[in-house]
Amino acid sequence: MRVAIVGAGPTGFFLAASLFKSGPENLTVDMFEKTPFPFGLVRFGVAPDHPKIKNVTRGYQKTMDSPRFSFFGNVTLTEDGGQGHITADDLLRHYDRVALTVGCQDDRKLGIPFEDSKNSYSATRFVGWYNGHPEDRELNPNLKIKHATVVGAGNVAIDVFRFLASPHQRMAMTDASDHSLEALKTNTIEEVDVLVRRGAWDVAFTNPEVKELLDFEDVQFCFYPDLPPLDSPPPYADRTSTKNMEVFHELAGRRIENPRMTVNFRFQVSPKELRVDSDGQVKEVEVCHNELEIGETRSQLRQTDKTSVYPSQLFIRSVGYRGRPLAGIPFHQKWGLIPCDKKGRVTDLEGKVMEGLYVSGWMRRGPSGVIGTNKKDATEVGEVMLQDQRAHQATSRRELESWHQTLLDGGAISKQDWGLLDAWETSEGEQLGKPRRKLVTLLEVQEALNKLKATSATA
Ligand code: NAP
């Protein structure tokens, strides 16, 4: 059985491992990935200062090492609008089963005036920039400012303001991109406002991320309005929100003399509009204040007429991800996801199953959960892929090999290439006392590969 998996992130690797475990011995997996590098969200999403989470790639590398596994990096499944190297039809012709594990690559917007002004970004792009995603290499956010704003109270928002609040030397020990480390050297931010539309009991942060803020001993954390008391929780409060609230109280009680930076959690506010200077650069954010009512599972908010204006020369919205549409594959515009049945079989918008095509991970169930959540998701979809029948004759081995060769001739990065690049990145990192020094652009990758191949040919 021949399987194609599109997207080399955690879900793609969990799926490949589960197919190797439960599928027939002749099952092969060819994985296609748009960037030159494997590991998706682990490489481009996980915060650089969370290296332990990245150890999960050891398991993915083992899957990659299987002789039944091939990798084709720098190969894009054509996106809506026509950019790409391969199509859904190519895959459905050459393979018995095709799985899309492409994650949610785009961001949700706030829908407010001047959202796209200079130095206003989505967290998706900002995180991609500091993590060395090739698409975000040229973001060049200006950190030589005084006031920054982060909107949202999820783990991505906390990753973003932790990056902004980190001194250069803290991040220099990590695999953050060279260009973001250079920018961090110029960081003059004095205050970060974290704008949260509901209350302190409603945040989506998880406990380890909130606890980590206690390590920032020279940062003053302030809370507006004052935190609600710990001993009168709403009925929906659980262990996570209670522990978060305990840490918030501890942070609020700390008085730092001459803080290096101040982080203001501003609850019950929603951005209304950005204001820009004559150069189109963001300078202020106007917010409206929300009233809260206790609901069944969280508070319900109601916007009021009261507004406030805060200075903001860097504005980052972190209000969730959404999928990017792919050519020839149905897409649910409102949800930002690929429509599918309960088992992960891709369907059209009327619910009719498209034989041979599956979706797993964030593009199936939305951008939620931790990396491990995708293992269960991928295992479920893997089982269905193995059970389903498909009346289809895949192309001959010769045709497949010739198609692969065309991709490699066109610049695809193979598993062997990745082995060389991985060794280069880790050895360069080691010399600088960090886990890896990331290559970012395709040009850098090609230059490194040419040198590495020339060296191994003369050795
Ligand atoms: P998230 O956890 O869903 O948080 C999104 C935040 O945006 C929420 O606070 C939400 O507020 C807010 N929001 C949504 N629409 C808004 C609007 N129009 N105006 C103002 N605020 C708005 O999403 P995420 O932070 O992008 O994270 C995605 C997933 O990755 C999550 O499951 C997260 O836990 C996971 N992740 C995990 C880690 C880790 O384990 N270390 C790191 C990063 C990400 P409401 O609650 O009011 O809707």
What does this structure look like?
The protein is an alpha/beta fold and 459 residues long. The chain has two domains: 2-105 and 322-413, Rossmann fold, CATH 3.40.50.720; 109-319, 3-Layer(bba) Sandwich (FAD/NAD(P)-binding domain). The chain has 15 helices and 17 strands. The chain has helices at 10-22, 40-44, 57-65, 88-94, 123-130, 155-164, 168-172, 178-185, 207-212, 239-253, 362-365, 373-387, 397-409, 415-431, 442-458; strands at 2-6, 28-32, 69-72, 97-100, 106-107, 120-122, 147-151, 191-195, 219-224, 261-266, 269-276, 282-294, 299-311, 314-317, 321-322, 345-347, 353-359. The strands form four sheets. It has a six-stranded mixed sheet, sandwiched between helices. Strands 6-14-7-8-10-9 form a six-stranded parallel sheet. It has a three-stranded antiparallel sheet with strand order 11-12-13, with no helix packed on it. Strand 1 (2-6), helix 1 and strand 2 (28-32) form a beta-alpha-beta unit. Helix 14 (415-431) packs across helix 15 (442-458). Residues 110, 151-157, 159, 197-198, 202, 204, 206, 209, 270, 318-321, 367-370 line the site of NADP nicotinamide-adenine-dinucleotide phosphate (NAP). NADP nicotinamide-adenine-dinucleotide phosphate binds at residues 110, 151-157, 159, 197-198, 202, 204, 206, 209, 270, 318-321, 367-370.
